[in-house]
Amino acid sequence: RSPRYSRRRSSALSVRSRNVSRKDPEVYKWRLKYTGDDPKVSLQAFLALVEDKRRSRRVSRSELFESASDLLDGTALAWYRVRRDELRNWDALVRGLTETFQDIDYDEKLLEEIRKRTQAPSERVSHYFAKVENLFVRLSEALPEYKKIRILERNVLPDYQIALQTQTYNTVRELENILVRLETGRLRQSAYAPPSNRNLLEPDLGVQYR
């Protein structure tokens, strides 16, 4: 056999071996689709879910990019079909989707939404912080820590705002920890009941009501 034939055969076997060992990431099984047509599903919410799945399934961004058509439908898929030859990687695809389907004033409107997002009376502190911090992440430019703190401390329940006047904190997490402790006291206070003096084993040591 000639050396040239041996090299060609070796190269073909190498390519075949890579193709056999390559595992399909099965992105289509995630059942995630972005259409760009449903106002109830924001692009950023969709991308956050995709990133969650990508990490848990250990899928690379290059594999994600190659499976892009499994993640798109409707208008978004139509847009992708005419642009895919121009796109080089997952980050470029995300930029293209953002420019095409996200509100042009998204950051300004989202920041205003965050500033108006107060804690609901029945909402736990940790739940409130989790949701607002996720909103912070969806801004294209990260807010400084002190601005996040200012927004959060102004939007927690009024009772907590009063209690915070005597507290010291420098990070969002420190603020949350303080508020969780205040919340614990508040929940215990709401569960408090005056002592009963009925059916006691030791009535002489029970409370004496006049």
From TrEMBL:
Pfam families to which the protein is assigned, alphabetical: Retrotrans_gag
Tree of life domain: Eukaryota
Residue ranges constituting the Retrotransposon gag domain according to the UniProt record: 69-150
Name of the featured protein: Uncharacterized protein LOC113473464
Highest classification ranks of the organism: Eukaryota, Metazoa, Ecdysozoa, Arthropoda, Hexapoda
